[in-house]
Design brief:
- This protein is of the alpha/beta class.
- Helix content is 33%, strand content 16%.
- The strands form two sheets. The protein has a seven-stranded parallel beta sheet with strand order 1-9-8-7-2-3-4, with helices on both faces.
- Helix 6 runs parallel beside helix 10 and helix 8 packs parallel to helix 9.
- The chain starts with a strand and ends in an 8-residue tail after the last helix.
């Protein structure tokens, strides 16, 4: 079942999915890089341009690489944070936030994202489950001691605890690291208990994130893929809506009322 957001007729796939959204008591949404790309957020690989193209991205996004070259890796993440400075949430981000906060989705929607750019939070979405961390946040490299306080660090590249020297690192999940267990557990619970899962802007190739869609389908939920191109999850979806999230999500979550809808 597909739709390009331009299909017309008595009952399009878009209309059917909107009915599923209306009727579902619990909705889970899994978002990936595609929704952020529509705002102009460069992908992980896109950030490896210019001066940064000479470095191995695997080394720039690992604990081993950070410990070996902390200043270089810190500055690369500062570069990536700078790329976000002029980026704003798009209509897809805003539609999810409005649905969760003020619309029919209040109390029914759990938002899970693979993205680290913070655009869902900036759009106003509450309680976002960030599987891969948050690029805009910091945390300690080693287990913090009583003296470690992120509000009072010694400046540097990277900053450090002025007492014990513990380094500050970006609050993202690096290669070789496990996803934060409380976040993953909450995401899995949402996938297993939802009646509808929207999979938005992801190729479906990164696990365990992509596995959430399989869990939802196995538990009996309807699965809907919203993406501009084919994904690895199309085959398990009950509906595939082909098009940009910034156009389709407002139609799904905040569109005009359907005939006969309460």
């Amino acid at each position: 079942m597909t739709d390009d957001a331009g299909t017309s007729g008595p009952c399009t796939p878009l209309d059917e999915v909107r009915a599923w959204v209306r009727d579902a008591r619990r909705i889970a949404v899994l978002t990936g890089a595609g929704i952020s790309a529509e705002s102009g957020v460069p992908t992980f690989r896109d950030a490896q341009t210019g001066y940064w193209a000479q470095f191995n991205p695997m080394e720039m996004a690992s604990e081993t690489g950070f410990r070996a070259q902390p200043a270089r890796v810190w500055d690369w993440y500062a570069h990536r944070r700078g790329l976000l400075a002029g980026v704003q949430p798009n209509a897809g981000h805003r539609a999810l936030a409005a649905f969760a906060q003020h619309g029919r989705g209040r109390g029914r929607l759990t938002l899970i994202t693979q993205n680290v750019d913070g655009l869902h939070q900036r759009a106003g979405s509450p309680d976002v489950l960030c599987l891969h961390g948050d690029l805009t946040a910091d945390r300690w490299l080693d287990r913090p001691r009583a003296c470690c306080d992120l509000a009072h660090v010694a400046p540097g590249h990277p900053p450090r605890c002025p007492t014990c020297g513990n380094l500050v690192r970006p609050g993202v999940v690096w290669f070789g690291e496990a996803l934060p267990l409380p976040v993953l557990a909450a995401a899995q619970q949402a996938a297993q208990s939802c009646e509808l899962m929207l999979v938005v802007g992801t190729a479906g190739t990164v696990y365990p994130a992509a596995g959430l869609a399989h869990q939802a389908r196995h538990a009996g939920a309807r699965v809907v893929v919203v993406n501009t191109a084919a994904s690895e999850l199309d085959g398990i979806a009950h509906a595939v809506l082909r098009g940009p999230a910034a156009r389709l999500l407002p139609l799904l979550l905040d569109g005009p009322p359907m005939v006969g809808a309460p």
